[in-house]
Here is the input.
Amino acid sequence: MDVSHTILEDVDILALSHILKQLPVVQKVDLSSCQLSGTQLSTLSPVLPRVVDLVLFSNSVDSPAMDDLAAVCSESRPSVHMQKLNLSLCSMYGEVAAKSLASVVASTHLGHLDLTGNTRFGNQGLASLAAALPEECSSVTWLSVANCGLQPGCAVALGQLVNKLPKLDELHLEYNCLANSDVENLLEELSSRHLRHLHLDNNHLDDGVVDSLCECLSVRQSLFRTSGGTSPAPPCFIYIHGNRMSEAVLDSIARQRLCSNDRVYQGARYVAQNRVHERSVSSLVQNYGGNFHNFASNSMMSSVGGYLRDDSHLVYIDLDGCHISDDGIRMLNNGGLRHNKCLQYLSVSNNCIHLLGFVTLLEAIVTGLPALRAVAVNDNPVFDNVEMSGALYTSCLQLLGQCSRLILLYLAATGLSDHVGSDIV
Here is the structure.
């Protein structure tokens, strides 16, 4: 049920409440940006526990409304169905709101809690939430406190929070002001924890935190190997886009080879986008798999192609949104793309590739890349203003006919539908 971006009057709230009462379980209710008041949320509280996925994004959720929801959930806990709760941009802050939120978590089977964008939540809110949560809150597996105004000095609260969420699989801490010391303390807690995805993008981390990052990744990987893959602390993924790491340190990390890149996303992977230059990109391509979404550029394509030529393990590369033009595809191909023997999936979606670049890519597919099975070229201006009688267009059609071994060639939003009546081949 989606009523998002609709200003609801009190009579609408009563009607919605009546409708929800008729349903034993509701898979999703989206109340985003409905300008709900605390009183209106309290009115809805008796029926909200039966909603599996509740979205309250961009409303003003006050503590009394959360207390009412917690009380209803507590009274009817065996029949509470709520598993996802989105409270992004809900103006939550301070100790009272955090305690009310902890009561809701404790009274439900909540697995997914999104607090993104509550910028006044801050260290106090985090500490209060961690303190108020019951021990071993085993249902929560996904938590976001991204852009929640966290400042240096929240290390103890972060550690306490992670300890109380033993099944937490993914933690989002992006767009805060975490210092090295906060993350170092958190990483110590994570060395033997289940958590697999830690998002630290766009904080204030610099070279000083790298040793702790590497040690955590190494310990997790070692535990996983020695346990024969049964360790409760599987290899983890740490994301540090947009921090203050230097090129020299990134190269040093790459040389330690802390990951297994025989399968993309398998093993500990260190994704880094900081002050990165071509040499660092080369090291990262070689050592940390092929995810360069919104990251690389034309000038890096020769280097990326070189590692695709030499790397006998890489099976996936994502170059989406990298502003790659026809020249970039040419550099990628000449650098070594066409000589790769193991690559199975290549994505160059959402770039600036025209017909010339697409033909270059098709030539590489037809003459090399024997393992390639799927290619995504969608959202490129490939067929915009193309002369259908031209030699390049004719060559393109001939090459397309020779790509039958591909399981998927995705060409949505490339202008192909203007020529053949379909945008997917």
Remarks:
- Confidence is low (pLDDT under 50) at residues 257-289, 421-425.
- Residues 210-226 form the longest helix (17 residues).
- The longest strand covers residues 26-30.
